[in-house]
Amino acid sequence: MRDQAEKLRAKIEQLNNGAQSKSIAVVSGKGGVGKSNFSLNFALGLAKTGANVLLFDMDIGMGNIDILMGVTPNHTIVNMFEDDLKLQDIIEKGPNNLSYIAAGTGLSRMFKLDFEKFNSFITQLEELLQEYQYIIFDMGAGITEESLQFIMSAQEIIVITTPEPTSITDAYAMIKYINIHESETPFYLLVNRAYSEKQALSTSKRLGNAVKQFLKKDVRMLGNLPDDRVVLKAVSHQMPFLLYAPDSRVSRAMLKVVDRYTENAFEDKPTSSSYSFIAKLRQYFIER
Ligand SMILES: Nc1ncnc2c1ncn2[C@@H]1O[C@H](COP(=O)(O)OP(=O)(O)O)[C@@H](O)[C@H]1O
Ligand SMILES: [Mg+2]
């Protein structure tokens, strides 16, 4: 008994001393609002600051991060589970040497795995956290019981909405749903495809006020990205817009968002350790 407790303590200490890694889930209510483009370019923006970043496409079975980067992954999460590969072995390199894990296509039963496989997956993820300061999960559309558990385990959640009323109400519903299950995790809000600063501001106010009033929770405003045709062009060229058009409005706005995020603009940032992410994953997936 004592032996085990000591081992656990050592492990926690080791984790707390390791690279302070942060797991961030990028979600939305409505689909097609720009999650994948945001996740990819945000990851590249963070990497530009010198951080070691891992981009994790969690849109299992319908992943498209690799397409947005114009690369063809050798391995994906889908074949990691099918072929019993190690998580470490499926990390690929994208533009600017960005580390990413492709979701793959065709399979949707990733988490319907036996206990042992999933336990091993989480242990490997735990090891990975030592190497990266940021792990960004592009959560894909919709919400399954399994993806919800992933979202709830993340240390921070970035919610993407456009100024469209339907997108705002869906984002609110998503926040409410997550909040019911996990009320501690901080939410950040990013308004995408805004036509003006004014419109972006009124969008974030509307959503922020609703969350404050009805869920008694503060949302952290991460800023906004303009509606910019450059995004469409970059997607067509299969290049992240930050690399395709670094001087475009949307790229400059993205760098501002990264600055805001990294410059400790959010003072009460919780000192959550990488341990809590893994501990929660274990709790949600295994100890049920
Ligand atoms: N800031 C933007 N300006 C213009 N078009 C955008 C912007 N963000 C996203 N889009 C458009 O929306 C499409 C869907 O984006 P995507 O990132 O794939 O959304 P999601 O991952 O939420 O489904 C893109 O292919 C692009 O055409
Ligand atoms: Mg997507």
Verbal overview:
The protein is of the alpha/beta class. It has one domain: Rossmann fold. It is 49% helix and 15% strand. It has twelve helices and eight strands. Strand 6, helix 7 (165-181) and strand 7 (187-194) form a beta-alpha-beta unit. Helix 2 packs across helix 11 (249-262), helix 6 runs antiparallel to helix 12 and helix 7 packs parallel to helix 8. The structure holds adenosine-5'-diphosphate (ADP) and magnesium ion. Magnesium ion is lined by residues 35-36, 59, 64, 138, 140. Magnesium ion binds next to helix 2.
**What class, by secondary structure content?**
alpha/beta
Name the shape in a single word. globular
Strand percent estimate: 15-25%
Any low-confidence stretches, pLDDT <50, length ≥5?
A: none
Which series of helices and strands comes N to C?
A: HEHEHHEEHEHEHEHEHHHH
Mind telling me the CATH superfamily name? Answer: P-loop containing nucleotide triphosphate hydrolases
Q: What is the first-to-last residue Cα distance?
A: 22 Å
Radius of gyration: 18 Å
CATH architecture label name: 3-Layer(aba) Sandwich
Number of domains: 1
Cofactors, ions, other ligands: adenosine-5'-diphosphate, magnesium ion
* Rounded mean pLDDT score: 87
**Spatial order of the strands forming the largest sheet:** 3-4-2-5-1-6-7-8
> How many helical elements?
12
Main beta sheet strand tally, sense and closure: 8 strands, mixed
Assign the CATH class.
Alpha Beta
Q: Helix fraction? A: 40-55%
Q: CATH topology, what is it called?
A: Rossmann fold
The oligomeric state of the chains shown is: single chain
